[in-house]
């Protein structure tokens, strides 16, 4: 099944069930700009705490840059071979965005001044705790990452979430501002070798009803 047919044939449930981590990619496949932007737009539609959208997508397409990131990710070849490698960043200072988001809603008459002030102050208070800021950055960037992987699969491309990289070296090499932390790498491309489905624990080991 080619990529076009895949993207039109799969339902939401089928996309979820079809997504598996792929570590070998056809090296010379280019994802069209429009398609990549559609994937990123769908990823950015993920939910977030206070709607602060605590993620940024650092998109690596240049081969030399991908090769550089490959070294920083301990030589994992999928980073180099994939069409695109996205560095998903978490925002440690997302409270700054609250002013913009709720300011626009206030200006549009969608919320009152009181609601605006309450929300901005609530966010500012929460972000005074560095651990809250870090937890929110990781949690919400994780939500966007999962949505990105599903969006890519719906468009006919494969992905693999990666936590194996030297965060400090990545920050230095890509000049990532201190405001952001690397949460994961997401190579996106066309699988060279089909992914192997992995086993899942049965629901009776995963679901706890009401209380332990």
UniProtKB/TrEMBL annotation:
Keyword Disulfide bond: no
Keywords annotated in UniProt: Oxidoreductase
Pfam family, one: Nitroreductase
Domain Nitroreductase: 16-189
Signal peptide start and end residues: none
Keyword Ribonucleoprotein: no
Enzyme nomenclature, EC number: 1.-.-.-
InterPro entries for this protein: Nitroreductase (IPR029479), Nitroreductase-like (IPR000415)
SUPFAM superfamilies in the cross-refs: FMN-dependent nitroreductase-like
Family: Belongs to the nitroreductase family.
Protein name: NAD(P)H nitroreductase YodC
Gene: yodC
């Amino acid at each position: 099944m080619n990529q076009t047919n895949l993207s039109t044939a799969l339902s939401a449930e089928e996309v979820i069930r079809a997504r598996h981590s792929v570590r070998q990619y056809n090296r010379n496949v280019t994802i069209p700009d429009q398609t990549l932007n559609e994937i990123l737009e769908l990823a950015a539609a993920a939910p977030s705490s206070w709607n602060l959208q605590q993620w940024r997508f650092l998109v690596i397409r240049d081969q030399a840059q991908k090769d550089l990131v490959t070294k920083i990710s301990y030589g994992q070849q999928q980073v180099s071979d994939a069409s695109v490698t996205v560095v998903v960043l978490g925002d440690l200072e997302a409270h700054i965005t609250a002013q913009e988001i709720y300011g626009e809603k206030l200006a549009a008459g969608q919320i009152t001044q009181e609601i605006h002030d309450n929300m901005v102050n609530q966010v500012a208070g929460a972000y005074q705790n560095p651990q809250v800021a870090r937890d929110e950055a990781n949690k919400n960037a994780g939500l966007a990452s999962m949505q990105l992987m599903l969006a890519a699969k719906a468009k006919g491309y494969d992905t693999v979430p990666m936590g194996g990289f030297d965060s400090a070296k990545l920050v230095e090499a890509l000049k990532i501002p201190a405001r952001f932390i690397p949460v994961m790498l997401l190579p996106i491309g066309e699988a060279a070798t089909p992914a192997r489905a992995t086993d899942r624990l049965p629901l009776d080991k995963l679901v706890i009803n009401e209380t332990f």
